[in-house]
User: Fold this.
Amino acid sequence: MRRGLRSKTSLCRLWVAVAVLVTGTIWLWSSSSIVLLGTYRVQDFVVNDLWRTADSNGWRASSAPRTYWLPPPTESESNGYLRVRCNGGLTQQRSAICNAVVVARIMNATLVLPELDTNSYWHDERCIDIFTPKEQEILLKYREQHFAKKKLVHRERRLIGKCPLTPEEVGLIIRAMGFDNTTRIYLASGELFGGERFMNPFKAMFPRLENHSMVGSGKLDKGLAGSAVDYMVCLLSDIFMPTYDGPSNFANNLMGHRLYSGFRATITPNRKALAPIFMDMDEGHASGYEERIRQVMFSTHFGAPHRRIHPESFYTNSWPECFCQMNARNQADQCPPNNVHDVLESQFHSTGEVSVAASAKR
Assistant:
């Protein structure tokens, strides 16, 4: 899934991933012997630059600690054992494991290998079937008493960017950015709302469509295996474009993972800015829509270092806490030495010795 070697007669193979609907993803690949994208220039941005990683400005991932932490406790020093049972989908369980490691460290406890759930999530059609009939009755009663039914107005929700992009809108965006109908596309998603009827316009624009069931055995259709394949395809692609980053752990975790893996190019559509364009098209005013889409799409950071803005989570964007900058002007941003653990330990012990000496003088 990485770039192929460049030959005299053909360009290197290119991969792109795009998220579709709530948890969907599209992966694009081209074997064309010419440059896949055009040379549109909007706000001095050349589309061909998307195939390279985003400009890191000298920043790189760094998991080195900023301060010294004592080594993990031995069994005799531990405050006990922490046992965790993870449930939900692949990315939910992955996040739960990360949280469990941190909690165990703070509690000075020994983390037991987490128990993973491989069944309930994939058979849970209403987020409630995993409970017993009696528990379901209690939950439904509680929901009726404490959560009033919301009246959602589609137009209003769409104008504020709260509606996922439809497959047709995704296709229009990709085409406006320079991709043609020879592009090979991998769809990584659950069951799509509206089914084939909603996918037909997209297939008309990009007919070379695949998913994980076409690249593996039938076992990938259910369980965590299919989700894992989708995740890895999107992680290692040249470009990833989530079309809905609301409560989607899949898209949010992927964006953070790609950022940490070398600022891999990520296109994040501004649904609020795109909504008026697509609504005008729905009303028959399609003139100049491609240029309007490009104006919106080429004004984002494309996976480069950027400050977190609410409600963006730490898992989605861990910059700058988990990064350092080579040749940094700010000392706090400088990359640590290779022996950072030894340096921090020495500083820790030196501070301790000074404190003991000061106490003795008193």
Confidence is low (pLDDT under 50) at residues 1-44, 121-125, 353-358.
